[in-house]
Amino acid sequence: EVQLVESGGGLVKPGGSLRLSCAASGFTFSSYSMNWVRQAPGKGLEWVSSISSGSSYIYYADSVKGRFTISRDNAKNSLYLQMNSLRAEDTAVYYCARDREIVVDYWGQGTLVTVSS
Amino acid sequence: SSELTQDPAVSVALGQTVRITCQGDSLRSYYASWYQQKPGQAPVLIIYGKNNRPSGIPDRFSGSSSGNTASLTITGAQAEDEADYYCNSRDSSGNLWVFGGGTKLTVL
User: Fold this and answer.
1) Does the CB of B101 have a partner CB in chain A at under 8 Å?
2) What are the tens digits of pLDDT across the range B15-40?
3) Chain A contact for B1, CB < 8 A?
4) In a mutagenesis test of the A interface, which of B20, B51, B97 is the best target, namely the one with the most A β-carbons within 10 Å?
């Protein structure tokens, strides 16, 4: 069974940093691209970032480019999102999701990031 | 990047058929996927590709596409289908993902 478990969310002040993690199991993690997708309270889904299976290809939404860094450790079956210079508008549930090139299929349960003073 | 446009809200009588649409230029090149999200839960994939359903998704859910519009059809809507529905596809570059704004489905 595919499982994705996010962690690392919490309350952070504007301008602060946070690192999210996603632990993957139930599939060959190193064979799949992975994504972070977020959802602000009461709002829709917003794709944040993607990383290819071997980390060669990395993409970001314009809204986070230059502030967020996606990475992965295939030996640890883990995906990460380093978030710097956080803003109030980054407040959201952050989901880790598996990428099958034509579809984003499995999602974790999400971790809440709140940016507030 | 591309945008995908969905109607914010749609309603359907119990047992009737409803279509939820998604429009965007990238849909001329890429199939849409559809996700169901209930309050407090993660999105669940219900349709992808031409018209594929993951295991466990009822066959009352189906997908179609024409030009720049993708559609999700629920044939014989059930009370448990009341949820938010999101479409998604690759953007025009093929490198990024884009989501529609979501459609809130009410089953009357």
Assistant:
1) yes
2) 999 999 999 999 999 999 999 999 99
3) yes
4) B97
CA dist., res. A28 & res. B57, Å (int):
24
Tens digits of per-residue pLDDT, A22-74?
A: 999 999 999 999 999 999 999 999 999 999 999 999 999 999 999 999 999 99
Closest-CA distance of chain A to residue B87, Å = 10
| Maximum pairwise Cα distance, chain B | 40
DSSP class per residue in chain B? ---BEE-SEEEE-TT--EEEEEE-GGGGTS--EEEEE-TTS--EEEEBTTTB--TT--TTEEEEEETTEEEEEESS--GGG-EEEEEEEE-TTSSSEEEB--EEEEE-
- The model's pLDDT over B80-99, given as tens digits with 9 standing for 90+, comes to 999 999 999 999 999 999 99
